[in-house]
Predict the structure.
Amino acid sequence: MGYSSRYHAVSLAAVFLALAIGILIGVNFGDDVVSGTARSLEESLQDDLSDARAEADELDAQLETERDFSEEAYPALVGGRLREDRVGLIGIGGLPAEVVDDVEAMLEPTGAALSQVSVVRVPPDAEALAERLENTPFSRVDRDPAQLEELGRRLGRQMISGRGNLIEDVREQFLVRESGTGERLDHVIVVHAVPGDLEGDDADTTETMEAGLLEGFAGATTQAVGVERSDSEESSIAIFDSHDIPTSDSVDLVAGRVAAIFVLLGADGNFGTKDSADQLLPDLLIPAGPKR
């Protein structure tokens, strides 16, 4: 019993002695250990950061090379393909300035002329249209969705054909602005810029008029393409696709411009970089000489 007590006392003394020695060692050497570890970690992180920066610089250089190549290759792919063709740019609800710039840059090497730029009023002023079209089959477009959709369909066709009594009668009520009208279009580029906050009757009449208009574009003999930028906040590709209008979802990029031009030349599908695209470009970009 006495042995046991003495044993436990010695054991406890040994434990406290070990703790004391550990504390002394920690006080004397702890700062050095921690500081050394911190320095090693900092050096390692700095090395990793330097490597990441070098890799980023290399990737930026490669991307710039690819961009330069694309810019140089674009005129070779589309140069003269639409020579002397008349192209219309039609915005439904609006026409952002940057999209106009994109389209002008897209068309420049093709030889085509941007001969018409129009913006369709959204929401449509159905009452003004009905008043203007009194004593015609469209006198109830403010109350009859079927009439409004058919009006949109006919106006779409007449915008492309460059002639027709309807479009002449309601330009002021139908369009917000326009330039260069009066000629038949060989191709039409459509931009959908309808505000997403429309409600009630405004939303209903807009959807109805829009459906007719897009059907009018799709049903014309002129080739149409729906376009938007790669950075568009809300995509309209599904709307165009539902009316059988081929699309390019990245008209601000060289690949998107190539796709749009080849759609105007007859390619069919949804092209670009977004999830809604079937593929980046049409399957066959067959080299051909400039349009004669």
In short: The chain has two domains: 1-78, 83-271. The mean pLDDT is 84. The two ends are 117 Å apart (CA to CA).
